[in-house]
Specification:
By secondary structure, the chain is α/β, with parallel strands linked by helices. It is about 35% helix and about 20% strand. Bound molecules: nicotinamide-adenine-dinucleotide.
Length: about 500
C-alpha cells in the first residue's frame, strides 16, 4: 500500500500542530521529483495564534537571565553537531545541493548559534560617569518584543539560523516563516531548538507564501522583520512592513562580479572562480556570476571552460560537484535565459542545457554554462540568473572593471584575483560593494562580523548577525540619573534643565 505523504506542522505555543488550511503544496525532491511531504499555507487564524503566543511568552522571556538564555544556545550548538549528518541528508533531499554543501549550509548557521551562546558579551550597554556633577548616563539594550523572519529556499538551515537564535538570545520572541519550497530541515532545526530548552511560545513557525508574509508585515504586534530572498519580494516586504511602523532588514538579490587581473595566480584564480560560479548550482546570493577579465587574463577562457567542463553534475546525495536546481520552474527559467543570451549575441562557450545524469532522468539539472562576449545591456548580465551560468566580460584596465561593477545596481559581494597589493588596495577602497574578497571568492563574513551587502542588494541599515544584529533586535534605552546625597543641595529648587 502507498504510504501517505507526511505533512509539515506549524509550531504554535510549543506544540507542533496540523494546519487546518485548505491550501497545501508539495515538497519535491529536485533530483527525482518524489513528493517528500506537504506544507500548508497557514490560515489567518493560525498566524494570529502564533503571534499571540509569541506576545504572551515575551512577558517572561525578556526577564529571563542572560546566562540562562546563553546556556540554551550552548546546548543547541551541541545538538546541531550531533545531528549534522541527519540534517544534511534531509536538506539534500528537499533542496538538492550536495551533501558536502548541505553540511556547509548547516555549519554556517551553527556558527551563528555559537555566537548567540556568547550573548553575555554582546548585549552590553555603555556608562558615562559625571556627565554633569553627580549625574551619570548609561544605556541598556532592551529586546523589542515579537520579531519575525522570512527566509528563502537556497540556505534552509543557515538563514533561519541567522535569525531566530540572535533574536531570541537578545530576549525577543519569534515567528519564523520558512521557505515553502524546503521547510523540512528548518523544522528539524526548530525541533532541536525546543529540545535545547527554548520555552513554549518563544519560537513559533508558520508556513505559507504571499498571504502569510503580508499578514506578518501588517501585524501590529510584530515589532521587527528580518527578510532574506529576492529583490522583488524584499522590496515589497520592506515597504509594506515599514509603513506598518516596523523595523525591517532585507537581504536581497545579487549579481556578484570578480575581477581577474593578469598577474593573478592563474591556477588558484580559475579554481576559485569555477567553484564560486557553479557550486550549489549557482543558487547562492554570493555566487560569482560575472567575471571581468582584465588585459591578458582574457586568454584564460579555454582553461576556465576546461575546468568547468570537468565538474560532475548529479544528485546531491551522491556528492557530485553540483546538484539540481530547486524546481522545474527554476530549470526552465535558467534555460530560457541561456537561450536569450545566445539570441542577444553572447558566445556560449559551454552549454549546460542538455546535461544528462545517469539514473536521474527527471532531475532539474543544468550543467555549468559559460558565456563570453557579454555586454552590460544583455538580459544575462542584467538579471540574477540564480543558476550555474557564468558571464565573462573583457576590459583593458582595473579602472574600467571597477567602473562596471560600480555601475551595476547590486552590491552584495565582489572579489579580485591579483598578486598586486597596490591593485587590491585600490579595489578595496574604490569598489562600491558591501562585501569584498581579495583572492577570496565568496567573502561571506563569519559571525564575529555582520553580513554587509549594500545598495540594491539590501534595504535597511543593519545586517544579520554580528554586532549589527544586536542593535537591530534591541532598543537602546538611555538613562540619565542623579542621586542626592548632600543635604544642602537637596533643598535647592532647580529651575533650569541645563546639566
Ligand atoms: P523569494 O523572494 O521568492 O522568497 C523568499 C521568501 O518570500 C519566501 O519565504 C517566500 O515564501 C516569500 N515570498 C515569495 N513570493 C512572495 C510574494 N509575492 N509576496 C510575499 N512573500 C513572498 O526568494 P527565493 O527564490 O526563495 O530565494 C532566492 C533569492 O534570495 C535570490 O534572489 C537570492 O539572491 C536571494 N538571497 C539573498 C541573500 C542575501 O543575503 N542577500 C541570501 C540568500 C538568498
Amino acid at each position: 500500500m502507498k504510504q501517505a505523504v507526511p505533512s509539515v506542522k506549524l509550531l504554535i505555543n510549543g506544540e507542533f500542530v496540523e494546519s487546518h488550511s485548505q491550501q497545501w503544496r508539495d515538497i519535491i525532491n529536485p533530483a527525482t521529483q518524489e513528493v517528500l511531504a506537504r506544507v500548508p499555507m497557514a490560515t489567518a487564524g493560525e498566524v494570529e495564534a502564533a503571534v499571540a503566543s509569541a506576545k504572551t511568552a515575551f512577558a517572561s522571556w525578556k526577564k529571563t537571565p542572560i546566562g540562562s538564555r546563553a546556556r540554551i544556545f550552548l546546548k543547541y550548538q551541541q545538538l546541531i553537531r550531533e545531528h549534522m549528518k541527519e540534517l544534511a541528508a534531509l536538506l539534500t533531499a528537499e533542496q538538492g545541493k550536495t551533501l558536502a554543501d548541505a553540511e556547509g549550509d548547516i555549519f554556517r548557521g551553527l556558527e551563528v548559534v555559537e555566537h548567540a551562546a556568547s550573548i553575555g558579551n554582546l548585549q552590553l550597554g555603555e556608562y558615562a560617569e559625571n556627565v554633569a556633577g553627580g549625574v551619570d548616563t548609561y544605556t541598556v539594550q532592551q529586546p523589542l518584543g515579537v520579531c519575525a523572519g522570512i527566509t528563502p529556499f537556497n540556505f534552509p538551515a543557515m538563514i533561519p539560523l541567522w535569525m531566530f537564535p540572535m533574536a531570541i538570545a537578545t530576549g525577543n520572541t519569534f515567528v519564523l516563516k520558512p521557505s515553502e519550497q524546503d521547510p523540512m530541515v528548518t523544522m528539524r532545526l526548530v525541533e532541536l531548538a525546543l529540545q535545547a530548552g527554548i520555552p513554549a511560545g518563544v519560537l513559533n513557525v508558520v508556513h505559507g507564501g504571499e498571504a502569510v508574509v503580508n499578514a506578518i508585515c501588517d501585524h501590529p504586534d510584530i515589532k521587527a522583520i528580518s527578510f532574506v530572498g529576492s529583490s522583488r519580494v524584499g522590496t515589497h516586504v520592506y515597504h509594506r512592513a515599514s509603513l506598518a511602523g516596523k523595523r525591517v532588514q532585507c537581504m536581497m538579490g545579487a549579481k556578484n562580479h570578480a575581477i581577474v587581473l593578469p598577474d593573478a595566480n592563474k591556477e588558484q584564480a580559475l579554481n576559485q572562480l569555477t567553484g564560486a560560479a557553479f557550486g550549489a548550482a549557482g543558487q547562492r546570493c554570493m555566487a560569482l556570476s560575472v567575471a571581468v577579465l582584465v588585459g591578458e587574463a582574457r586568454s584564460w577562457i579555454p582553461d576556465l571552460v576546461a575546468k568547468a567542463k570537468s565538474l560532475r553534475v548529479g544528485a546531491g546525495k551522491d556528492n557530485p560537484d553540483l546538484g539540481p536546481l530547486i524546481s522545474c520552474a527554476a530549470r526552465e527559467r535558467v534555460s530560457s535565459l541561456i537561450n536569450q543570451g545566445v539570441a542577444e549575441g553572447a558566445v556560449l562557450e559551454l552549454d549546460g542545457r542538455e546535461v544528462q545524469v545517469d539514473g536521474y532522468p527527471d532531475g532539474n539539472f543544468v550543467g555549468p554554462s559559460i558565456f563570453s562576449g557579454v555586454s552590460t545591456d544583455m538580459a544575462i548580465y542584467q538579471q540574477e540568473i540564480f543558476g550555474p551560468v557564468l558571464c565573462l566580460l573583457a576590459v583593458d584596465t582595473l579602472e574600467e572593471a571597477i567602473a562596471i561593477i560600480n555601475a551595476n545596481p547590486n552590491g552584495n559581494g565582489t572579489a579580485i584575483f591579483t598578486q598586486s597589493g597596490a591593485a587590491a588596495r585600490r579595489f578595496q577602497e574604490d569598489i562600491d560593494v558591501g562585501q569584498v574578497g581579495i583572492n577570496v571568492p565568496i567573502p561571506v563574513p563569519v559571525p564575529l562580523f555582520s553580513f554587509t551587502g549594500s545598495r540594491g542588494s539590501k534595504l535597511g541599515d543593519l545586517g544579520p548577525y554580528g554586532k549589527q544584529v544586536i542593535l537591530f533586535y534591541t532598543q537602546t534605552k538611555t538613562v540619565t540619573s542623579r542621586w542626592f546625597d548632600d543635604e544642602a543641595s537637596s533643598g535647592k529648587v532647580h529651575t533650569t534643565i541645563s546639566l
